């Protein structure tokens, strides 16, 4: 009896040793089993424990049932596990997405890399070109600077020479101005003297205007007309010359110049000009310069300075607005004389 109990005890221990790994394995499977089946398995464990207490055979049968139940749950779980084709499809999709993402990343990295390389090459080329141009410009600037320096030196030398020449020319100009002033004074004096001499040579002349011309006319008829109108007897020998002079006025007869032998004979006739005005007009025979001087003095722009102007005995006289009389020569400064 004692031997039998010892044998039963050993069997129990052996079964317990065998059931421990099985339980561990079932427990491991149960971690992967759905919660509904796991709850059923867990709920059945207390009953199996009670049966195990009653007898060893019942314990073995309960363990077998538990293993079957675990296997059933495992089968259900396996049915819900993804199949190999699904895994392949998932892997393919993941790999495709990975390839696409990798392709995009590679393209972006490649684009950035290419851009950086291109920019680096362009930058390098630009730097080389700028360096080359800088060197060329430096050489050109050096050449131009040298040329300018040479030119400036040449200009400085020319300037010094020109300054010397200018100094000489200034001295010459000063001398020439002095000479020119002297020449102008002499010229003015010569013109004034020439006009005076011409006027002096014409002091015994009378200029006749508006004496009608006719063919075969003898100008010495002048003596007869004077005698008839004034009663003055003129000897033909008292007239040195009588003739007409050219005129640009084609609307009137050409003027006549009568040159008397003496100033007394001329004076005796010229004083009767009012008596002879119906036949012709008699005037003093003045030079063209004196005539121009008279026109200038009688011009409108001189009316504020000149009261009257006239010719007498070879000279031009003027009466200013202050009542002062002046003798004016053709080379005089009229404004300076009248404003003095």
Question: Could you explain how this protein is built, in words?
Answer:
With 340 residues, the protein is an alpha+beta fold. The chain has four domains: 2-81; 107-202; 205-285, L1 transposable element, RRM domain (Alpha-Beta Plaits), CATH 3.30.70.1820; 286-340. Helices cover 66% and strands 11% of the residues. It is built from eight helices and seven strands. The strands form two sheets. The protein has a four-stranded antiparallel beta sheet with strand order 2-3-1-4. A three-stranded antiparallel beta sheet has the order 5-6-7. The longest helix is centred in the middle third of the chain and has 118 residues, at 84-201. The N and C termini lie far apart (184 Å).
Q: Any key phrases for this structure?
A:
four-stranded antiparallel beta sheet; 340 residues; single chain; Alpha-Beta Plaits; alpha+beta; 8 helices
Distance between the termini: 184 Å
Number of strands: 7
* Biggest sheet statistics: 4 strands, antiparallel
The number of distinct structural domains comes to: 4
Query: What percent strand?
Result: 5-15%
Over all CA atoms, what is the radius of gyration? 75 Å
Low-confidence stretches: 15-34, 40-53
Report the total helices. 8
Strand order of the largest sheet: 2-3-1-4
Structural class by sheet pairing and helices: alpha+beta
Mean residue pLDDT = 80
Q: What is the helix fraction of residues, given as a range? A: 55-70%
Give the overall form.
rod-shaped
Report the order of strands and helices. Answer: HHHHEHEEHEHEEEH
